[in-house]
Amino acid sequence: MAYETIIVEVEDHVATIKLNRPDALNALNSHLLGELSVALADCDKNEKVRCIIITGSAKAFAAGADIKEMSDKSYVDMFMSDFFGGEGNAIISTRKPIIAAVAGYALGGGCELAMMCDFIIAADTAKFGQPEINLGVMPGLGGTQRLTRYVGKSKAMEMNLTGRFMDAEEAERAGLVSRVVPAKSLMDEVQSTAQKIAEKSLMSSIAVKEAVNRAYETPLSEGLLYERRLFHAMFNTEDQKEGMAAFMEKRTAQFRDR
Ligand code: CAA
Description:
binds acetoacetyl-coenzyme A, six-stranded mixed beta sheet, 10 strands, enoyl-CoA hydratase activity, four-stranded mixed beta sheet, Enoyl-CoA_hydra/iso, single chain, 46% helix, ClpP/crotonase-like_dom_sf, alpha/beta
């Protein structure tokens, strides 16, 4: 499918979705988020795709929700369209693993989109922030909720109340990003990480994603039980037999997602 605001490429079982509104620093308007939702659903259906990367440009992953699109809207407009509700749900319901490759600004909805991915690898140029407070509003796509879970109350509260930006080093220290790499090698590093994930059994990847996400939603005892039952269920798969046989035979496993 031809998209106007994103570019999608699939190579070696990895789909790379590049946000592509350079004149607006990849500001997230409804059209872009709609296209992103469709592209992610397509990736889930496409058997060639085993891992997904969402990225932006060197200057901006995304500088937030599109302020120009929102500025004239009323409460009724926002409420009745459940602004960003459907798109947000579409992104988080993607089953395959998604890596956010962030360089430059990841602000407002941009930071929130990165946090909706399964993990973030940041260039040393990355800047994260929830500056909505400067616009007389507040985050609407997870900035008060996911950021608090990632970095804890104190830092999330400060970021949301002041709108200050966090650089990549601070973001790594705070646990917002899994790793910081030099900007020039960001895409190589992310591609090679995605490649490693793509080589695993997709059943294992999807189950790991579901189980880690459960850690946010359930008490520890329920999360541990959910994990254990998924682990037990894997003993009914060919990939478990293949993975363990390959270990014992000292060879590389050939997973078939069965
Ligand atoms: N929405 C719409 N357009 C945006 C945008 C946004 N969030 N961010 C940048 N742009 C546009 C600018 O208007 C400008 O367009 P024009 O050339 O037509 O004027 C173009 O992108 C380049 O931006 P700047 O000239 O401002 O670039 P800069 O390098 O001087 O500054 C910046 C970069 C600090 C990121 C600055 O653009 C900025 O502060 N952007 C807004 C950040 C923000 O407030 N984000 C939160 C949005 S609200 C939100 O996200 C709600 C939510 O939770 C869902």
